[in-house]
Known about the structure:
Blueprint: E1 23-24, H1 33-64, H2 71-76, H3 94-106, H4 113-143, H5 145-176, H6 186-240, H7 245-259, H8 265-273, E2 291-292, E3 305-312, E4 319-326, E5 331-335, E6 349-352, E7 357-362, E8 365-371, H9 376-382, E9 385-391, H10 395-408, E10 411-412, E11 427-430, E12 436-439, H11 441-445
Parallel strand pairs: 1-2, 7-10
Antiparallel strand pairs: 3-4, 3-9, 4-5, 5-6, 7-8, 8-9, 11-12
Helix pairs in contact: 1-4, 1-6, 3-7, 4-6, 5-6, 6-7
Protein name: PH domain-containing protein
Keywords: Phosphoprotein
Domain PH: 303-412
Amino acid sequence: MTxxxxxxxxxxxxxxxxxxVDEDAIPGEDTSEVTxxxxxRLQAWKHAxxxxxxxxxxxxxxxxxxxxxYEKVLKTVSSPxxxxxxxxQSLGGIAGVFENVRSNTQGISNAHFDTAKQLKGSVLPLFExxxxxxxxxxxxxxxxAGKGSKAVDKARIVTQKHIELLGSHTAAFxxxxxxxxxxEDPYVLQRGVMHRLNRQIQEENNNRQDLIxxxxxxxxxxxxxxxxxxxxxxxxxxxxxxxxxxxKAMYGDMVGKSQAVPLDxxxxxxxxxxxxxxxxxxxxxxxxxxxxxxxxxxxxxxxxIAGSLERKGKIMRSYDTNxxxxxxxxxxxxxKTDDDFAKDPVPEVSLYLPDCIxxxxxxxxxxxxxxxxxxxxxxxxxxxxxxxQFKAHTPAAANQWWEIIRQAAGSVTNELPxxxxxTSPVTSKxxxxxxxxxTSPVAESKQPAxxxxxxxxxxxxxxxxxxxxxxxxxxxxxxxxxx
Length: 483
């Protein structure tokens, strides 16, 4: 018996793009193509084993009648193999084994009852069990890799719909000048595409690994099939060894042909004939970083500024750090994180800046008064105006954020947000009557000036920053240009 060699060392064929080449978000290949091919191959093996079962059964019947109807045995193998294109038609393969069986069966003319009894009780069950194993393998393929292919198709449909949604709203951004709702913001939709694309690629890679496992297991399973066939025909030879010398020689020839088939002979021929369909396990897996899709780099998807800011809570009054971004659509979005893959990046808070009032920038802090429009049209109708208090990590960063927000805001005031009050001596403050009165910084810190929203000026007529000499004393020295 030949020694099996690795059936996966010469795997073909269809290679994926390497890691440096752009890939389509929705590949064009049929995800179930490999599964269908293996399912059809299992059918071919099942029919081949069915041929052998029929052959042994017919042999047993013919032997019980002393060879009078031995022509029936020949008829069971006279037809070509079903799905015969799956087998190598050259000498030395399964097709050659069946051809050899046909020629030797023609010369068998006598049979005995005892031989028929042994064939029915010991040889036939080997092939029946093998037939059952092939059926179970077919069910395993359908329930395993078949479901994975359906999951990939479903994920690709979801991704394609979101890409089309992004395309429609980027077109609307161009035609409407960027006026749209928060949920229609191309920046948010683009991040949604990345989220769904990541899930799709995970399904694709999982299905790919499943198919590679199935592909590798098929090599071993087919070796097992051929080994079982060889073993069954070997048993068949032992049963028939008591017959006439001529019959023994004929059946020995059939067994010799089957044992001469290398365990990987049919498999290697199969992968060579289907090199354009089977998967190459050495090809790299897909990565989101290498995938490009329409409007991915559209100017409406690129933030004007993005980073972490602190925002004072409405209840606890403590600052929480979140990820913020100002988009070309003039939205200020708040996200829990900048990770597009962990969860769907839907904004926690969205402020449409043209409808907001922006106060002055004081050190690291600045305030915005407006309505959270992140809940859609219905939520926006019942939403209330709130004052959002922000704090950057440095005064320079705060001024950078404030300047970009100011340019997009509908109105700007010179009111400064409350700032921390250092423990310094009492400073003087001019009283309404013109006299100087001493006020402690502690007393001032308890009464921060609220953001004024009455009688505000338009953005293009914003009053110049209050000079240092006229700025209200808050216990902290003012700096020129600090809003």
